[in-house]
Design goal:
This protein is an alpha/beta fold. It is built from 13 helices and 11 strands. Helix 1 packs across helix 7 and helix 9 crosses helix 10. One of its GO terms (molecular function) is acyl-CoA dehydrogenase activity.
């Protein structure tokens, strides 16, 4: 088997992107197996994630991305502790390690232990030289660096355990939307995807919304009505019913359209099936708040003129290759290992 080169990696990633356009062909039985072992991983959401990666791995973006990639001639072993909150969420980290010519020691999440293996198997089928760059492990050992994704609690363990090697430790983050009242119905339909894609389980899902003072909540509910079928998923409905009962018992002020609860709260992280909101007097106040909470925010979704990097409505769950989690450049980190 010939050795992996950067040119081979670029070509293989591009070919993988083309193949992922047909998720059922690539995933096969894994598509059904993943859903049977994790009810949150519906076939619709799995296919949505695969198609997002297919769009990400386009030739133009790959060419730009690889300009910043230093291909290692002395590969390092990089431990990857992957999350499993939404399908394939850890795949970008795997691709970053492989793109730099390093070796990925992959600790899969028990919630997503089939899909990534299947996609990586397809990558190896395209370019067999990747086989020597991938190892699945139950416990990390003999590593040179670590990229670990987890909760705020697990991050304290990660910080301690991996403190002696170069690392990226990711904690809980949430995404927010800023409305100014001029949004069209189409804008709000797109926003609904930012809220409901993957049932709202991702760090790129909007969990908090900022309204201008006096905003008519009925306008938002009208715009997101097309996503009302989400309540038919039993696990989502269980969360909706539980949170609704808590608010009713406690006589907590909230809004309810039958599938999404709105509650005023200063926190960013809302319970599943709940969207927190705050009212604001002017956009500068919102901008200041978001800057103060930048370490806890993954994405800002808006069309308002605020001086913060943001996504258009409907785009938070469609990151590009250069959209790194927590705004930490994974490629730059990996380049620095050599």
């Amino acid at each position: 088997m010939s050795a992996l080169t950067q040119e081979k990696a670029i070509n293989a990633f591009g070919e993988l992107g083309k193949k992922l356009i047909n998720p059922t062909d690539i995933l096969g039985n894994a598509l059904y197996s993943a859903e049977s072992s994790n009810a949150w991983f519906t076939q619709e959401n799995i296919k949505k994630s695969v198609l997002s990666f297919a769009a990400m791995l386009n030739e133009a973006d790959l060419a730009i991305w690889f300009q910043s990639v230093k291909f290692s001639t002395s590969p390092k072993k990089v431990g990857l502790i992957l999350a499993g909150n939404i399908p394939l969420v850890g795949l970008h980290d795997v691709l970053c390690v492989l793109a730099t010519g390093n070796i990925a020691l992959i600790k899969l999440s028990s919630s997503d232990d089939k899909l990534i293996k299947t996609v990586i198997a397809e990558l190896i089928n395209i370019e067999p030289a990747f086989a020597d760059k991938i190892e699945y492990v139950e416990r990390l050992k003999d590593f040179d660096a670590v990229i670990a994704t987890g909760s705020n609690n697990s991050s304290r363990y990660f910080d301690y355990y991996f403190s002696k090697v170069p690392n990226i430790i990711r904690k809980n983050r949430n995404s927010v939307a800023v409305l100014d009242g001029t949004e069209s119905n189409a804008d709000l339909q797109n926003l609904a995807a930012d809220i409901f894609d993957y049932f709202g389980l991702g760090c790129r899902n909007v969990s908090k919304i900022y309204f201008p003072k006096g905003y008519d909540v009925a306008h938002l509910y009208e715009g997101i009505e097309s996503h009302n079928q989400i309540i038919n998923h039993f696990k989502y409905q269980n969360n909706y019913d539980y949170n609704k009962s808590i608010y009713l018992v406690n006589a907590a002020k909230h809004f309810d359209n039958g599938f999404l609860l709105l509650k005023e709260d200063e926190n960013l992280a809302s319970p599943l099936a709940v969207l927190y909101y705050e009212e604001y007097e002017n956009l500068q106040d919102v901008e200041d708040k978001l800057k103060d909470k930048a370490a806890d925010i993954q994405c800002v979704v808006t069309k308002s003129p605020i001086n913060i990097a943001s996504f258009d409505f409907g785009q938070s769950q469609h990151p590009k290759l250069l959209d790194y989690a927590d705004n930490v450049n994974t490629i730059e980190f990996l380049n620095g290992l050599n």
